[in-house]
Amino acid sequence: MTANIQHHCNLKPFNTFGFDVKADAYFELNTQQDITMLQGVLMQHPQYFILGGGSNVLFTNDYHGLIIHNKLKGITIVDQTDDNVFVKCAAGEQWHTFVLWCVQHGYAGVENLSLIPGTVGAAPIQNIGAYGVELKDVMHELTALDLHTFTTTVITNAGCKFGYRNSIFKNEAKGQYLILDVTFKLSKKPQFNTTYGAIDAELKKMDITQLSIKAVSDAVINIRKSKLPDPAVTGNAGSFFKNPEVDEATYLALKNQHENIVAYHLPTNNYKLAAGWLIEQCGFKGVQRGNAGCHKLQALVLVNLGNATGNEIIALATEIENTVFEKFGVTLEREVNVVG
Ligand code: FAD
Ligand code: EPU
User: What does pTM read for this prediction?
Assistant: First the structure.
């Protein structure tokens, strides 16, 4: 059996920025047999990058190595108690497909994370989050293939060292593991979290009087559709930057100068600043630089307005970072994974 490796593969359909780049080699994982063959493939192509839905990557150039594209599918209940159900989901399932499966089955926990693009296998990498919930709140454990030793290992929630848009997979274990599946601990007795952002207001607008998992999911979907660009129409990778965290003294000094600054108080007594507000105050919301742009409804999202290259987006990102630093003394950190 020989592995089906494609050469000079066009990655435009596989990254939500829609960059027109190629990979020297491309290998799709659809079956258990493909995983078995991967070791041999990696011997031929030791330089590799794991790709899911391509919704949080920015390719600056053609990729001179192997793209491993995870498309493994399957959702299974592996255990349950009176209160909880443990669901194992293969890494190549679309995240939102998994959320809709949970909503349909009446299992609570991921409804606030509705409509986040990408795959289940990528969700632990940056500990995806939205509307007051993060992956760390619902993930039990995951199975990963260690690409250094070619052994399969189970990593617990604690073992992932999750933080805000962070985990071991972005630090000491970067590139080491191919996540094969993720097991979630979901609730049969929902406790709704509707206080964040505009969820309550949206539920009111929808005339919802009886809360349900589906109602919360629908409200989140409506809010997201109202401000985030659809990658099928306008290339983007969601928030380009993280919301920066500053200590109390820095926050108070900023607040003193900019009384409308948007910030969230953290349990550590630090503050998380809304990067979208900082960027908008610097006049970038809706600007265009060639084919690169800053989204007109959400300044934290950089967009491909035509045939932008990754480097055009990076140039705009750098301009934004420098201007925000000059005006506020705050350093923006990129959320998007730059590959090139
Ligand atoms: P990719 O972009 O393909 O890869 C991302 C990283 O994960 C890469 O480093 C890659 O190597 C690694 N990776 C992927 N699959 C695996 C695997 N199986 N094993 C090991 N490593 C792997 N994110 C949020 O947190 N919250 C949001 O609200 C949100 N909203 C978004 C809205 C839009 C419109 C868009 C375009 C993006 C948004 N994102 C959001 C970012 C993105 O959806 C997430 O980061 C998502 O988890 C990326 O999934 P992916 O499969 O596309 O990963
Ligand atoms: N704001 C502005 N101008 C803007 C955008 C935002 O002033 O152009 C201010 C507003 O005051 C707004 C506040 O910032 O109320 C927060 O904005 P929003 O609710 O849109 O959330 P965010 O902080 O910009 C974060 C995540 C999103 C996630 C939403 C909802 C990060 C980096 N981003 O955005 O995640 O969907 O909260 O929970 O934490 C992603 O990671 O790709 C992503 C889209």
Answer: 0.98
